[in-house]
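To make the argument concrete, we let one protein speak, a sequence paired with a row of structure tokens, as a model reads it:
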Amino acid sequence: QVQLVESGGGLVQSGGSLRLSCAASGRTFSTANMGWFRQAPGKEREVVAAINWNGGNTHYANFVKGRFTISRDNAKNTVYLQMNSLKPEDTAVYYCAADWFRRLRVGVDEYDHWGQGTQVTVSS
């Protein structure tokens, strides 16, 4: 099993920045592909960004390209999501998730291990 704990969420004005962190413990983090997802009220959970086990392959949702950056530090068992130029429509609960499939996947249903989430609120 793996335990995932997100942090770094909060309230920020439109155009501002936040850096989310997801600390992992338990199962070997350095071999896991990691994803950041979000869920806004009344909407389905969606992928934001994903990164493979060694950081050599990343995926971004179109709505965050050029604004968000996913990265990881395997020595610290942590994955990050740097969010810049935030918009009110980025308001959601952000979750990190882990997957040990042989290739990077981005489907919500393909991730079995989830954190509790951290709230991000962007005011206009």
